[in-house]
Task: inverse folding
């Protein structure tokens, strides 16, 4: 199931990539690297990230799309209140229901990218999450999927 | 859902706050919190961790005593795995007496109610309590009757209905690539009826117990459910309103509480799925409430979900609801017609 689906998403991406994103690598097929341009416009005029470009790592598991992909920014990550220095992202659609998240198999990597760009676009301040340093020390070399997230901010 | 709509998903900055409540004692939290200006809004959990981070002494004490995220997640996974071992996605047929035994030491109301069920139902089939039990019970029970009765007319109807959903799903914003395989799997299984190699109940059991096929079918049903709700948003909106603080639109509700695997089903989900597939079902509610009136406390409440196009059609699927969970029920066979005394 996972290979067919990833292949289908790859074909779809190549025909119609999400705005501001391009695929740097998809070899092996289970590990993509995406380049994302900061959004042009934000909530109140130009976006804070309009001159920035970021790289993202996407890892699919055998359980995809029932399980979410592992998505993180390759440092330097965007300075954003929900993105840690090590690239971990606190976004509900990147966790499944058993971790209080909102991932569903109806989502695709394209849609995840659009959500992330929208998260950047609505940011009004370039700052790190509280406890960034402690978090990064504690999760060194670990996957964001080994973190238990809490989701409560619906604004940014 | 609007395809590609970049509406921000919910996010948060409390990745490190997982230990809230589990390891910080209340006194610790209060004593630490008292020395620090309070965080605004609802971020109490984050504040506690922030303070911990600022204070190396407390941090060290915390780190040594509290389980790490990895340990907690490993434990959660172990619990899920042991639940899975106890019961596959779908169990075997059991007599209702088995259910009665479960409550013998407990609730007398339950036992009385189960006994009163025995005149209408002969047996049951359990499904795993993983949040997908309504969808799995529904599709299993529906297909089992089709297979057992070789009801080709109904099969043709539902296959046509499923094919009509393809464009409707896309109009609702589902990309074809997210549902095409699952839809074909479902249709192929139905189409095998009436061929030289029809689906059997045994294969249906195997399929709905399969680690890959079973979730795929549930996923498909969840998308149909979501699409039905969104296509009739005006009808469903009043029911959705008030069910969640987070989901304020029909689309948000579907994305957050219908499409993700493991989200439990409510009336809204049931109405939408039975309407989407035009399959009438009956749900028998087994709970502690004593029904007033005839039958007294042993009467069991039943509710028929009958799609508008199915008025007068008897339920095709019977489900047993116990708070938080759905299983399949098997109606007792109708009493055999009285046999005239054999003439000699």
Result:
């Amino acid at each position: 199931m996972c290979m067919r689906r990833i292949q289908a998403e790859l074909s779809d991406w190549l025909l119609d990539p999400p705005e501001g994103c391009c695929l740097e690598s998809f070899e092996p097929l289970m590990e993509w690297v995406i380049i994302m341009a900061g959004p042009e416009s934000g909530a109140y005029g130009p976006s804070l990230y309009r001159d920035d470009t970021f790289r993202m790592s996407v890892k699919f598991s055998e359980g995809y799309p029932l399980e979410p992909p592992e998505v993180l920014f390759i440092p330097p990550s965007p300075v954003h209140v929900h993105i840690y220095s090590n690239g971990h992202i606190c976004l509900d659609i990147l966790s499944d229901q058993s971790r209080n998240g909102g991932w569903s198999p109806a989502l695709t990597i394209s849609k995840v990218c659009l959500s992330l760009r929208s998260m950047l676009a609505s940011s009004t301040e370039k700052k790190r999450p509280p406890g960034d340093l402690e978090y990064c020390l504690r999760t060194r070399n670990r996957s964001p999927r080994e973190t238990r997230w809490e989701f409560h901010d619906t604004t940014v | 859902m609007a395809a590609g709509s970049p509406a921000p998903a919910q996010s948060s900055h409390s990745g490190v706050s997982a230990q809230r409540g589990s390891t910080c004692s209340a006194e610790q939290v209060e004593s630490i919190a008292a020395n620090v200006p309070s965080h605004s809004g609802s971020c109490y959990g984050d504040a506690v961790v922030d303070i911990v981070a600022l204070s190396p002494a407390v941090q060290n004490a915390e780190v040594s005593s509290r389980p790490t995220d990895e340990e907690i997640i490993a434990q959660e996974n172990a619990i899920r795995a042991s639940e899975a071992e106890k019961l596959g996605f779908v169990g075997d047929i059991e007599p209702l007496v088995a259910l009665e035994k479960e409550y013998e030491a407990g609730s007398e109301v339950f036992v009385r109610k189960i006994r009163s069920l025995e005149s209408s139902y002969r047996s049951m089939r359990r499904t795993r309590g993983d949040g997908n039990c309504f969808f799995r019970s529904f599709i299993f029970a529906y297909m089992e009757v089709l297979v057992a009765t070789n009801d080709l007319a109904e099969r043709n109807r539902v296959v046509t209905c499923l094919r009509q959903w393809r464009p409707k799903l896309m109009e609702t914003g589902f990309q074809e690539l997210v549902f095409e395989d699952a839809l074909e799997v479902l249709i192929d299984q139905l189409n095998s009826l009436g061929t030289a190699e029809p689906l059997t109940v045994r294969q249906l059991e195997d399929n709905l117990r399969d680690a890959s096929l079973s979730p795929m079918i549930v996923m498909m049903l969840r998308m149909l459910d979501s699409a039905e709700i969104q296509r009739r948003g005006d009808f469903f909106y009043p029911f959705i309103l008030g069910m969640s603080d987070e989901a304020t639109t029909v689309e948000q509700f579907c994305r957050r509480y219908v499409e993700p695997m493991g989200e439990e089903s409510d009336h809204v989900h049931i109405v939408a799925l039975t309407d989407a597939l035009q399959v009438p079902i009956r749900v028998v509610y087994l709970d502690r409430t004593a029904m007033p009136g005839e039958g007294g406390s042993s009467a069991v409440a039943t509710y028929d979900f009958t799609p508008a196009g199915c008025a007068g059609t008897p339920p095709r699927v019977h489900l047993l609801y116990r708070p938080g969970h759905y299983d399949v029920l098997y109606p007792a066979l109708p009493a055999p017609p009285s046999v005239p005394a054999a003439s000699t």
In short: The domain at 16-31+87-331 of chain B is CATH 1.20.1300.20 (3 helical TM bundles of succinate and fumarate reductases). The first strand of chain B starts at residue 90 and ends at 95. Chain B is about 50% helix and 10% strand.
